[in-house]
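Practice problem: predict the structure.
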Amino acid sequence: MVAGGIAREAGFAVHALTIDYNQRHRIELEAAARVAAMLEAARHIVLPIDLSLFGGSALTADIAVPKDGVGSDIPVTYVPARNTIFLSLALGWAEACGARDIFIGVNALDYSGYPDCRPEFVTAFQNLADLATKAGVEGDRFRIHTPLLAMSKAEIALEAARLGLDAGQSWSCYDPTPDGLHCGTCDSCRLRAAGYTAAGIPDPTHYAAAG
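Answer:
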């Protein structure tokens, strides 16, 4: 959401891509539609690809989501190569429609457990984009924008407020309740709540439990 808001503020027309990878919790697809509407996206594509066939993650397979706090190891909520897959699909659409700027909201500062959220990954994918596409080979290079990469969760919360975005429409939780609330105890909920506390602004998120 915030990455899209920054892109719009910079003068880009937003073309939103949501990947329906058959994740266990479909509520994030509803949130993506709300965010695309909020950003007044020129187009919003929901692209299906079934990563549950691969498994290997608590987000795609019947594996419990950890609730014991943020650790230092790569967590079981990591989806194998997810950002590589997502960026590759975004790259294909960008080349097809003539766009050359791709924004992704990866964040490495508060939680660097995911290998595909690191600056090294972004740099490597930038090189790949230039090598693997007709546009890149012909000198019409792509630019991978990661405006949230070095922000703290507090800074991201403040940026959403500055941009006038309703962060309550976004979704973070790895394990939502049956009635559609953030669980409040998974890693993502804990980080989100801590970010708002550090920012000193009201948290618009509805949690089922305190983290």
